[in-house]
Structure formats: structure tokens, C-alpha cells
Automatic annotation (TrEMBL):
Protein name: Thioredoxin family protein
Coiled-coil features, chain-numbered ranges: none
Record PROSITE patterns: THIOREDOXIN_2
A Pfam family: AhpC-TSA
InterPro entries: AhpC/TSA, PRX-like1, Thioredoxin-like_sf, Thioredoxin_domain
Length: 183
């Protein structure tokens, strides 16, 4: 499991459309996911230690972002054949156990991950209300363990997007496990 980092933010890049099944079986698309002040699209999975390290704090931040008019969707694009923890059944299980306040979508064909150029879990894409990318950075300075006294980088960036429509100029790339591509 190699650590990998995505590229930095390409400000203004438009969010590619998606229409993916949620863990409850209902289809969720880009347009209806947008909040009044923005949308956070995040690529996560169940097995990744980087995701596991931030998940409770991520859920809390997402709930707070909702009060600022920023909606969130999570997309799981890994091939679960080698990582059964990422199966649709286990996606449903974790979403229920952790009471995800966002849709947890399955990108079975991996086409959406490719359209977004997602490279790792977690990989965050913060869009303003005009679907223009304003943040592609890390959650905070945590790695596989929670960093003590960590700054809420993702939250602060998306709060700024909600308030101004623009993300911070200085961003530090996320780090995580590579997307598990199908052969």
C-alpha cells in the first residue's frame, strides 16, 4: 500500500457530471448534490488507513459544512476484488454504522474517478456553487494517525468557498492510498 498524492488545485476546473448509485440503491447526480454555497466531492473507501484516521472528524466537519450551505458526496471507486472491505455490502455497513451525513456512491466502472483524475483515498474536490473547483487539498496534516492539534484545512477552505466562492490560494495536496484500478 503505497502512499500517493494528487496534483494541486486547478482553479475553475468544472466538475464532471455523475449519476451513481448510493448505498441505499437510489441514484445521485452532480446537479442535485450541489448545495446553495458549494459541493465537496470526496473519493474515499473503507479499507484505507488514511481515511480511517480522519473519518469521525470528517463526518463532524461535513455536518458543520452543511449548515454553511455546502453539500458533500463520497465516491468509492476501488476495485473490491482484492479489497473485500470496499465491497458494496461493506459500504452500506460503514455508512449505516457511522451514520454518514452524505451519500456514499459506488463508481463500479471507475469512470467517474478517471473523469475527476482521482488518484488516492482520500482525494477531496471542493467546488463553489458554479461547479468551479476551488480546493484540492488535504483534510489536515494527519497521515495514518491523527495529528495532535491539527488545523481543519479542508473545513476552513470549504468555509471560505461558501462565504466568497473562492478557495485559498495556498493548498497542500492530500495523501493516501492509491485508487485500486481494475485490470
Amino acid at each position: 500500500m503505497a502512499s500517493i498524492s494528487p496534483p494541486v488545485c486547478d482553479f475553475g476546473w468544472k466538475a464532471p457530471a455523475f449519476n451513481l448509485p448510493n448505498v441505499d440503491g437510489k441514484l445521485v447526480n452532480l446537479e442535485t448534490s450541489m448545495g446553495p454555497n458549494g459541493l465537496l466531492v470526496m473519493f474515499i473507501c473503507n479499507h484505507c488507513p488514511y481515511v480511517k484516521a480522519i473519518l469521525p472528524r470528517l463526518i463532524a466537519d461535513v455536518k458543520e459544512l452543511q449548515t454553511l450551505g455546502v453539500n458533500t458526496v463520497a465516491i468509492m471507486s476501488n476495485d473490491p476484488s482484492d479489497y473485500p472491505e470496499d465491497s458494496p455490502e461493506n459500504m452500506r455497513k460503514i455508512a449505516t454504522e457511522m451514520a454518514f451525513p452524505f451519500p456514499y456512491l459506488l463508481d463500479e466502472t471507475q469512470q467517474i474517478a478517471k473523469l475527476y483524475d482521482a488518484v488516492c483515498t482520500p482525494d477531496f474536490f471542493g467546488f463553489n456553487k458554479d461547479f468551479a473547483l476551488q480546493y484540492r487539498g488535504r483534510f489536515d496534516e494527519s497521515r495514518k494517525e491523527t495529528a495532535p492539534e491539527s488545523t481543519r484545512e479542508l473545513f476552513k477552505a470549504m468555509k471560505l468557498v461558501a462565504e466568497t466562492g473562492h478557495g485559498p490560494q495556498e493548498q497542500i495536496a492530500s495523501i493516501g492510498c492509491s485508487i485500486k484500478w481494475k485490470e
